[in-house]
Amino acid sequence: MIQWTKQLPVRFAWRKIAVSSVGVLTLMTVLVLAIYELTKTEVTVEANGELLSVYTHASTVGEVLDEQNIEVGEHDLIEPTTNTAIDDAMTITYKHAQEVYVHLDEEEETVFTTSDTVGELMDELDIEVEEYDDVTPPVEEPVIEGLTIHYESAFQVTVFSDGEEETLWTTSTTVADFLEQESITLEELDRVEPSGDETLVEETELHVIRVEKVTDVVEEAVDFATVTEKDSSLEEGSEKVKQQGQEGKIEKHYEVIFENGEEVSRELVKENIVEESEDQIVAVGTQKSTETVSRGSNSSSDSGSSSASSDSSSSNEWQTFTATAYTANCNGCSGVTSTGIDLNANPNANVIAVDPNVIPLGSRVEVKGHGTYIAGDTGGAIQGNKIDIFIPNRDQVRAFGRRTVELRVLD
């Protein structure tokens, strides 16, 4: 027991020494750590819009980003550059580049950008967005990964519509798109030149043509025909009106097309007779005057004269025909007779249409009271003792009507 009490102070002494050593080591470690921390440089890292204060012993910007586990891509924005030495109170800016797809007019390209908005990206691409250009999404929209941007530059076109001329800016690709964009409506008959499916280009001139179809009803007078009748009570060569002619009336319905207020076509679609015309009847005298033979005349001479007269009558005998008139300017008419006479080129030609079985084509004939004509034409309705006299003036043809005439073949 006495020995144990003697050794106790020694053990306490060693413990005290051990505790003192640990304390010293701990203090030294704390001092080292404190010195380490105090010798760090403070920098600010702005990563994708977020601010972070960082204390570091890194010597370059790149090392700081590595410490923050920021993997820098090829197109990312680093300011200052990664090999820049660290300074106290330095601010490091890092922006991750986003992949977007840009359609420029008709071309598409993939772009990596650190721009915040569509407008900033347009500036980055050196694209000056004018007032009438089309950018989708709008320039104030933020840029996000995978965004698709459409840009179309505006150009000018000139529009002629409703009597006005206007120059407009557009990004439309076709005429139809442009009309829709500008709220220009076309009615059923309206049209536009160039047509709706045509491609719009710089300085195109667009003509909007307003088409209107109307029905125009015109009342016209119908000339009466003049009909002649033989009258044995009247002397040959004299005439007398037995019945006055009366004009008729006819309604003509025309389909009229107007383009921008101007008439461009007129087509007759229907005719209605309002009032029938009445023929004018003219009596033509046929009574021959009686010649008195001189008592002293030679009978043989009279006989010879009578014989000569009979021969002349047989070769140039007057015959009764029904006569009408025609013109070369009718619907479906060529203006060239069946014998090849061009009536349009020869408006003063004295030509009649005949039945070749009655009057040979090419014959020269005389129509009493009208003159000498060439039998140079035929007609489907000209059969038997009928003739059709060529008159170049349409109004005179109408006035001629239908008449009974005397005709003889000269040669």
Please give the structural blueprint.
Elements (H helix, E strand, L loop, with lengths): L1 H37 L2 E7 L2 E7 L4 H7 L9 E3 L11 E5 L2 E7 L2 E7 L4 H7 L9 E3 L11 E5 L2 E7 L2 E7 L4 H7 L9 E3 L11 E5 L1 E12 L3 E10 L3 E5 L4 E12 L2 E14 L4 E8 L11 H17 L3 E8 L24 E3 L10 E4 L3 E7 L8 E5 L3 H7 L2 E7 L2
Specify the helix fraction band: 10-25%
Radius of gyration: 58 Å
Low-confidence parts: 1-6, 290-315
Order of helices and strands: HEEHEEEEHEEEEHEEEEEEEEHEEEEEHE
**Main sheet strand line-up:** 19-23-20-22-21-24
CATH topology of the largest domain: Barwin-like endoglucanases
Distance between the termini: 190 Å
Question: DSSP strand (E) fraction?
Answer: 35-45%
Question: If helices are DSSP runs of H or I spanning 4 or more residues, what is the number of helices?
Answer: 6
What is the number of E strands? Answer: 24
Description:
A hairpin with a 2-residue loop joins strand 1 and strand 2. 13% of the residues are buried. This protein has 5 domains: 41-95, Roll (Ubiquitin-like (UB roll)), CATH 3.10.20; 98-152, Roll (Ubiquitin-like (UB roll)), CATH 3.10.20.30; 155-209; 214-285, Resuscitation-promoting factor rpfb fold (Single Sheet), CATH 2.20.230; 316-409, RlpA-like domain (Barwin-like endoglucanases). The protein is rod-shaped, with a radius of gyration of 58 Å. The longest helix is centred in the first third of the chain and has 37 residues, at 2-38. Helices cover 20% and strands 39% of the residues. It has 411 residues and is an alpha+beta fold. The protein has 6 helices and 24 strands. It has helices at 2-38, 61-67, 118-124, 175-181, 299-315, 394-400, and strands spanning 41-47, 50-56, 77-79, 91-95, 98-104, 107-113, 134-136, 148-152, 155-161, 164-170, 191-193, 205-209, 211-222, 226-235, 239-243, 248-259, 262-275, 280-287, 319-326, 351-353, 364-367, 371-377, 386-390, 403-409. The strands form 6 sheets. A 6-stranded mixed beta barrel has the order 19-23-20-22-21-24. Strands 2-1-4-3 form a 4-stranded mixed β-sheet, covered by helices on one side. Strands 6-5-8-7 form a 4-stranded mixed β-sheet, covered by helices on one side.
